[in-house]
Amino acid sequence: MRLSARVVTGVGLTTAVTIGGMAALIVGAHRVDLVEQVRHGAGQLSDTIRSSTHSDMMENRREALQRQIEGIGKQDGIRQVRVFNRKGQIGFSSNTGEIGRILDPSSESCTACHRGGGTLLHPSPPDRTRILQGRDERLLSVITPIPNEPGCSQSACHAHEPSDTLLGVLEVSVSLADVDQRLASGRMRLVLLALAAIGAGSLALWWLTRTLVLQPVRSLAAATHRIAEGELGVTVPAPSSHELGDLARSFNTMTTRLSETQRQLAQADKLASVGRLAAGIAHEINNPLTGVLTYSSLLANRTTGEQDRSDLDVIVRETKRCREIVRNLLDFARPAAPKRASTDLNEVVRRSVAVVMNQLAIERVQLTLDLAESLPTVSADANQIQQVLVNLLINASDAIGEGGGTIRMSSRPVEGNPAEKAAPPPGVEIAVEDDGAGISADQLSRVFEPFFTTKGSRGTGLGLAVTWGIVEAHGGSILVDSIVGRGSRFTVRLPLVPAAGTVPRQRIPEAAAV
Which letter, b or e, does each residue of 399-430 get, where b requires 16 or more Cβ atoms within 10 Å of its Cβ? Predict the structure, then answer.
């Protein structure tokens, strides 16, 4: 069964039970009201008959009393009028055939007065009435006790003792056929109205469910099937502002990101293949380059001519540059796992500065250190971290240029907050900040891509890519913030304890701006 059919069936059944229960209560209340009206009218009719026949009873005009009762019994809706004494003998009746018959004390007409062996002179309105089942219809029987009045017990024409409190009972039976017909008609109207309400409600619910729920869900289901078949760029319409619209918009965002991720993975796979190919070629090129460098150096040492020596120096210099490119390419394509040990990063900073100090002095670059005291040790490969810091210092010096400038290098501990999921773990942060030319916003997002450089022919574009790979292999992160004309700041964050399973990875690095 479809979802819409289940919803409509469930709501329809619930509505049917609810409306059916309400209809039953309404019909019951209507029945009680109608019967009460008939009971009240029958009681008034019985009291009226008793009053109208009072004089005939007092004067003992039996023929007149019988004619009056027969006339009343012929009226529409009245089925029977009779008077019987306290012994149950019928003295007067609209049905002359039963005059003189004695009623059974256990019959419906006698139970109101005979309770527990006694009599009830003044019964309550509910006790005065009984609903009886006739041959073809229901009857409402109303009894009215006839008490012993002083005129009856003291008159010379009557032989009633003053101790007799009850002389007889007047019984009037009226038809409930009209009441039953009205109840049946009202019940039928309620049933028709209930069916119409259930049908209209189910139809409206089906339309709303189909419009607001089923159509968006079907669009999402069809889109998921297409995604399962490999079409990741699928989107669904999301015009509504309710929860399903939010779901559709989230779905579109997810598919867009999946498509972008697929594109990046494909590009990364291509780059990885190119990297492996380049690494193999670079390894094969390395041996000839070593031979060229060796023989060029020997020839330069043996040559006495200035022009020849100058030419050989160019060959040696460019060969070394090629060898450096090959080495960086191999480092990027085949990153080595860090050999971790407890490392004092302040000491690594000082060793890195000692390596590039002469070059910085030649280029008139001033270096200031702001190292935190009592810096905690980290689990890291000191040689690889030194390579990272040397690369950052050389890049900062190149960004400053020939006019000279200042590089500021600092270290500080980073306090982690376990309560915040997005907070960095406890570790150490090293920052390299220069006052050089800076990096534009469009270039900032690409600085860690392999073979991308802002140095022109002076750079290979592999230094920051290798740096990023080393930092990530240590479970850390590298952030960059730059303003054109004011300088750049590279921040390396290393955790005190490396994350479990941290290994070197080959993928496209992404710049993280502070």
Answer: bbeeeebebbbbbeebeeeeeeeeeebbbbbb
